[in-house]
Amino acid sequence: MKRWRWLVAAAAALVAVGAVGLGVWPGAAALLNVTAAKLTTQTFTDVVGTATLRPNADRDGQTHNQWTSSSTGTPCNSPSVQCYTLLNDNNANTYIFNSNPSPSQQAQFELDDAPADVPASGSPVVSVRVSFDAKKSGNIARTVGATVELRLGTNTVASASDSDISDAGETVTGSEVAVPLSRTDVNNLYVVVTGTTSGGGPGGPAVLQVSSISVQITYLK
Ligand SMILES: [Ca+2]
Ligand SMILES: [Ca+2]
Ligand SMILES: [Ca+2]
User: Can you tell me the mean pLDDT for 193-204?
Assistant: First the structure.
């Protein structure tokens, strides 16, 4: 009985990855052939793996980025301020924030490397999905938006975005994107956080808070 549940779950995961791949990625046919071949030779539970990558280092060095640490109240680009720790601690009360955010004000973070069971050859990672938690504070009569882009070099691989972040706080999850990535590609992924401000009215600036960032990867073992 237990074994059948594993089989059904594994088959569903493969169909999901394949369906996304067919729509977006030209190599989807090859992927489906590879997964079909694995199905005949491997245990079903070994075919697909998932992992969550979280920020593990500040990336923007001394760049003037206008983002501030909630724990120290100092700019993320100040020496010795480690803003990434606020984004991977599973604590909504710790965050980076930007008063009156605009798209030119980026905060960048490195991500965890691929887990040990991601194969070292080929392009085992087949899809990625970006999520983050954000909240609006300050002058909530204004509208703030937030975007987290997943980048490899100068290319944006995937993103999550919401043009109207609520003052109650919300989780923003991007689309699952089918993309072939090598293990080295995964190790080099990083995220870029930006915001927008629109609307007006009296009062001070609106504040965008980002308290968590995660990237889910799906790979073939
Ligand atoms: Ca946090
Ligand atoms: Ca929203
Ligand atoms: Ca990395």
Answer: 86
- What structural domains does the chain harbor? 50-220 (2.60.120.260)
User: CA 46, 181, 122 angle in degrees (round to 5)?
Assistant: 65
- Has this prediction a pTM greater than 0.70? yes
Residues with a beta carbon under 5 angstroms from ion ligand 2: 162, 164
Cα separation, 29 vs 197, whole angstroms: 42
Q: What is the dihedral of CA 29, 19, 185, 62, to 10 degrees?
A: 150
DSSP 100: S
Q: Which ligand sits closest to the CA of 92?
A: 1
- The gap between the terminal CA atoms of the chain, to the nearest Å, is 24
Q: Which ligand lies nearest the alpha carbon of 162?
A: 2
